């Protein structure tokens, strides 16, 4: 498995992100075209139903992706809270609850050695956005179980 870093940590599954969504987008566009430019022999209700099904399929694909990601984020938040309780100095431990979920999720990529300093910078407001936090990670802690 290739070494994970900021540049390649996002996970794309071509069959899902490109093929499935591509087909669903094409289906939605074709349904809309057929709604406004009717093919001979199709009534308005059939064309409208086709658009509704295309929208429902696109929404289903979207939610099939986002619901597991939310569950994964909850698990990451729990893991990182436990990790922070173990690794942070005593003065920072009471402030773990001040970290936003996105910040906790971004901090998971920081090695154990750099986690206290990076957390201190986040809590001090030096960096706030998850993307900025990830860019500050010097020793990347890979997450190969992401969805």
Q: Total number of β-strand segments?
A: 0
Give the count of structural domains: 1
Instruction: Give the CA-based shape.
Output: elongated
- In whole angstroms, the N-to-C terminal distance is 16 Å
Write the layout of secondary structure elements.
Blueprint: H1 14-36, H2 44-87, H3 101-107, H4 115-123, H5 130-136
Helix pairs in contact: 1-2, 2-3, 3-5
What does this entry look like structurally?
By secondary structure, this protein is an all-alpha fold. It has one domain. Helix content is 61%, strand content 0%. It has five helices and no strands. It has helices spanning 14-36, 44-87, 101-107, 115-123, 130-136. α1 (14-36) runs antiparallel to α2 (44-87), α2 (44-87) crosses α3 (101-107) and α3 (101-107) runs parallel beside α5. The protein starts with 13 loop residues before the first helix and ends in an 11-residue tail after the last helix.
Question: What is this structure, in a nutshell?
Answer:
By secondary structure, the chain is mainly α.
Keywords:
147 residues; mainly alpha; 0% strand
